[in-house]
Each structure stands twice: as C-alpha cells, then as structure tokens.
Design brief:
Strand content: under 5%
Number of helices: 5
Largest sheet: none
Structural class: mainly alpha
Radius of gyration: 13 Å
Shape: globular
Helix content: 55-70%
C-alpha cells in the first residue's frame, strides 16, 4: 500500500510516481511498460499451464498494481526481481535510494 501512496503523489495512480532528480522519466516508462507487458503475457501463458510467476498475478491487472507488486518484490525477494526483471530492479533501486542492493 505504501507504493500506492508514492504513486499517487504524482496526482494519478498510474504506476509512474514522481521521480527523483537524476532519474529519467522516459527510461522509467520504457522499462516499466515493457516489463508490465511481459508480465501480462507470462500470467496468461502460465495460467494455461498451471505455473506461477514471481509476481502475484494481480500485478498484471494495471500499471499501478505492477508498480506496487514490483516494489513488494524489490524489498521482499530482491534477487528474484533482479533475475527476472533486472531493469525494473535497477529503476526501483534508484527510486528507493537502494543503489547498493
């Protein structure tokens, strides 16, 4: 839920929170859009086969839920996120000032 609060600080719940100085909005958008689309494909594909993704499938419902789910993984299972979505991990490390993780 904290991620939703951060996301809404931009004025909209859309998976694009206000970024810190030095972060590029175009890079954030490209990384998160690509990863969100990939997760949507994976969720559909894996449901058919009875397999899971590292994300809760709810993260594939909307960009804001993807951001929240990615944030949760970043803190709870960072190595899984790094392995599956390294660019998302990198952006979240910058966003949460955890560049050493």
């Amino acid at each position: 839920e904290c991620a939703h609060v951060l996301d809404s600080a931009s004025g909209a719940l859309d998976g694009a929170p206000p970024l810190h100085r030095g972060m590029e909005a175009s890079r954030w958008s490209a990384v998160f859009s690509a990863a969100y689309s990939d997760l949507q494909r994976r969720v559909i594909h894996r449901r058919r086969r009875g397999r899971r993704t590292i994300f809760d499938p709810y993260a594939a419902e909307s960009p804001e839920e993807f951001f929240a789910g990615a944030s949760e993984l970043f803190f709870e299972r960072p190595q899984s996120l790094l392995r599956e979505y390294p660019d998302v991990h990198q952006q979240l490390a910058l966003f949460y000032h955890q560049e050493g993780q």
